[in-house]
Known about the structure:
Distance between the termini: 81 Å
CATH architecture of the domain at 180-278: 2-Layer Sandwich
Mean pLDDT: 83
Number of helices: 12
Shape: extended
Largest sheet: 5 strands, mixed
Structural class: alpha/beta
CATH class of the domain at 180-278: Alpha Beta
Number of strands: 9
Order of helices and strands: HHEEHHHHEEEEEHEHEHHHH
Helix content: 40-55%
Strand order of the largest sheet: 7-4-3-8-9
Amino acid sequence: MNTNQLVQAMVQRLGTEIKGLLRQVEGGQLPANAVETVVRQKLWQFGGQAVAVLLEALDHKLVASAPVHDRRTRTVVTLFGPIDLSRSRCQDGHYPMDEALGLVGQQGWTVAVQEAVCLLSCECSFQTSSDLMERLLGLSISAPSIQQISQQAGQRAVDVRAEQACSHEPRLTGPAKGGLVVGIDGCQAPRIDGWHEVKVATVYRNESRCRKASGRGQVLQKEYVASVEKVEGFGRCLWDVAQRWGVEQAHRLVCMGDGAPWIWNLVAEYFAGAIEIVDFYHALEHLWQVGEALWGDRGRKEQTRGWVRHYRKQLRRSRVDLVTISKRLIARVGDTRITHRRV
Length: 343
């Protein structure tokens, strides 16, 4: 059967499946709450077949000019489940398709599967990631395999970062006209021995900011830094990245954070003289603290909500001067003896 005949047979089979589901619906055999699950299962099977056809066609393109020894079949785990893929083996023994798919392990996980695993394992334990892969994608990948995939991806990231560190040239030539921006934060991530703080940063030039048609902001060129090292190691790594972005030649340097002491201490050590800005979300948190100290719980006091709404608008307009609270009030926020007066 040639490719055209195979594609036609697949389309006919899919049409037959959908007609069968319609008969079940008309006969009252398929309830509404089961339609999505059943259709997904059918499309999943069709998707796996389509992936196999497309990859085998691509295999011929990959080895078009290379001497082929033979063709061998192996099981490859895709987002649509395991498929048996026939691919070419070259005279030197390597498989171009395996390299193109980034297959890892005896099970042959594709890059797409590895990405899904890594995204999940960043948010939850290896066992939970395994359970979610089974529940959401129907892929059976054990917790040890999840760990293996994640650790190998992490090592590749370390290698890439090491290669970048060897390059001392700025990412963009010339001084940053609108200034350089460094955003720093921290989040929690699971490791084998428990949860650890991951320190993260974003470096970009202010002139690379733009707005989409929807009005939402976007940064066209940026670089991320992330590490589970202590502040000292993270600071050195961040400084290396900032140097590649021309931090020492920048007309203006802005550092953003959530107000955590470790962030401002790091800024003072590596980016002395930078303009320090607390991000809007955390600045608003401080407004709520002051508002509740002045007027009471936000859930019960409209006065509190109105006060915060008023000063939130001033923050959005960059009128920080109108939001500044007296030192005496700030020093006594949370104290039961706080002076109850409008600022």
